[in-house]
Amino acid sequence: MTLADETVVTLRRLADELEGRGGTKLPPEREIAERLGVSRATVRRAIDLLAREGRIRRVVGRTGGAYLVRSSGVEITGFELPSGRRLARDLNTVRGVPEMLTLQGFVEGTRVVEARLVPANGMVARALEVDAETEVLSLLRVRFADADTLSLDHAYVTLGRKMIGCDFSSSLYATLQDRFGVPIVATDEIIDTVGANERTARLLGVPLEAPLLRLERVGYDARDRPTEYSIDLFRADRTRLRVRTTSSDAEPSSRVRFGYADR
């Protein structure tokens, strides 16, 4: 399958996803191209094909764009699950978001919002077990699945200055292992639900106070040293959590160090 064919398939999936949530139009061509890592010409040809198929209609002008023809405007009530395909976030494995998306058949994408050195203060210093003011890398990224926003990830990494200049559009875990020989082999995570604040809503393109899954995580290397502290905000309408449990008689298989009871 050519890159152009893959783009068409991805935009068809995106249209289905948006229609299932009552969306009315595709993102702008420029944003789709950036999220998929293809040229605007490739996106334009794919949208033209969807228009010929009757999936979208083009509207020109200030409020123009590629509007969905079969948008259902479905209202979700009660305990019904939102329609559309969602990422299954497996809590039993140590795996980066790009790998999870690829394994589940999504086209993944990343936009780096911020990558800079900052002093480790407060919770960051405690989670990474470093002295206050220790220099760490602060990495803020928007993740995409099939050209639609999925999550906002904010990671702090102890390697600090060594990582400046790395390609942060790829997997952080793969970069740590392949370039620095520091694999993340275990994680502790705390999961909450929150509403999107003004900045998060703007970066994810969701309404203010839209429901998000907040995953607070510490990642440990092979020597059991905390290397990564992250707060990931996943769109609740695009994510479901998967966890495996065992009986109380079984040998415990997960860590509990990050379970701060007084937080």
What does this protein look like?
The chain has helices spanning 3-20, 29-36, 40-52, 97-103, 123-128, 172-180, 198-204, and strands at residues 56-59, 65-68, 87-90, 108-119, 135-145, 148-157, 186-195, 211-220, 226-235, 239-242. The radius of gyration is 20 Å and the shape is elongated. α1 (3-20) packs across α3 (40-52) and α2 packs across α3 (40-52). The strands form 3 sheets. A 6-stranded antiparallel sheet has the order 4-5-6-9-8-7. The longest helix has 18 residues, at 3-20. The protein has 2 domains: 3-68, Winged helix-like DNA-binding domain superfamily/Winged helix DNA-binding domain (Arc Repressor Mutant, subunit A); 87-242, Chorismate lyase-like (Chorismate lyase). The chain is α+β, with helices and mostly antiparallel strands and 263 residues long. It is built from 7 helices and 10 strands. Helices cover 26% and strands 30% of the residues. A hairpin with a 2-residue loop joins β5 (135-145) and β6. GO terms for molecular function: DNA binding; DNA-binding transcription factor activity. It comes from Tsukamurella sputi. This is GntR family transcriptional regulator. Pfam families: GntR, UTRA.
